[in-house]
């Protein structure tokens, strides 16, 4: 085992979540590549709607501690109205530069319909605003209802893409940080 710790944050609250299944596969690939892992399932955390005056509400400290422990993160979300889920947005609002700056992030999006490109773009923008380093490889699962049989992938090429994401976040976990992005410099709210 190497010294890389990968944390996945699941933005789906559904019990039968394809996002959760895919994140578990990405984490398994990270473990096969030698990393330790942690799957943050937002269903198990008490995170009230974010209020900047109540930054420590509910399980916010636990969320920040687990995210901060990561050398690399994988953010996974279902597509809701062309973007990522409110559960993931709320969790990300509890975090900031302390948890994300100079952290490698992989992105995964699951769509019931077409390719979830805007969801991935929106997550990439948030990560850049927090000065994280987002791996170029991303995993998308369109038409999710026809992509799984229980917890098994039906399309080997999509499964391989998810596994590659798990490996890439390990490979690039300790990449030399880039200078701050313009987005992060302008992100006043991220440093409150």
SSE arrangement:
Layout: E1 5-10, H1 18-32, E2 36-41, H2 60-68, E3 72-78, H3 86-94, H4 97-100, E4 104-110, H5 117-129, E5 133-134, E6 139-141, E7 148-149, E8 152-153, H6 156-171, H7 182-185
Parallel strand pairs: 1-2, 1-3, 3-4, 4-5, 4-6
Antiparallel strand pairs: 7-8
Family: Belongs to the SsuE family. Isf subfamily.
Keywords: Oxidoreductase
Domain NADPH-dependent FMN reductase-like: 5-142
* Class inferred from helices and paired strands: alpha/beta
Query: CA-to-CA gap between the ends?
Result: 37 Å
CATH topology: Rossmann fold
Characterize the largest beta sheet: strand count, sense, and whether it forms a barrel. Answer: 6 strands, parallel
Number of strands: 8
- Can you tell me the number of structural domains? 1
Uncertain regions spanning at least 5 consecutive residues: none
The number of helices is 7
The average pLDDT score comes to 91
CATH hierarchy class name: Alpha Beta
The appropriate CATH architecture is 3-Layer(aba) Sandwich
Shape, principal axes of CA atoms: globular
CATH homologous superfamily caption: Flavodoxin domain
Instruction: Specify the helix fraction band.
Output: 25-40%
EC number: 1.-.-.-
Pfam families: FMN_red
Domain NADPH-dependent FMN reductase-like: 5-142
Cofactor: [4Fe-4S] cluster
């Amino acid at each position: 085992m190497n010294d890389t710790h990968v944390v996945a944050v699941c933005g789906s609250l559904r019990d039968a979540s394809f996002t959760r299944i895919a994140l578990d596969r990405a984490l398994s690939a990270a473990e096969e590549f030698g990393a330790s892992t942690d799957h943050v399932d937002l269903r198990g955390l008490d995170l009230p709607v974010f209020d900047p005056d109540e930054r420590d509400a509910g399980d916010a400290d636990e969320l920040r501690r687990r995210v901060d422990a990561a050398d690399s993160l994988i953010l996974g979300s279902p597509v809701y109205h062309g973007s990522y889920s409110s559960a993931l947005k709320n969790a990300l609002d509890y975090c900031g530069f302390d948890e994300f700056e100079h952290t490698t992030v992989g992105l995964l999006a699951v769509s019931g319909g077409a390719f979830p490109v805007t969801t991935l773009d929106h997550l990439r923008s948030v990560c850049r605003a927090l000065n994280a380093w987002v791996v170029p490889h991303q995993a998308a699962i369109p038409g999710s209802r026809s992509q799984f049989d229980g917890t098994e992938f039906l399309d080997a090429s999509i499964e391989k893409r998810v596994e590659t994401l798990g490996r890439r976040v390990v490979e690039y976990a300790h990449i030399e940080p880039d200078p701050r992005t313009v987005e992060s410099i302008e992100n006043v709210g991220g440093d409150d």
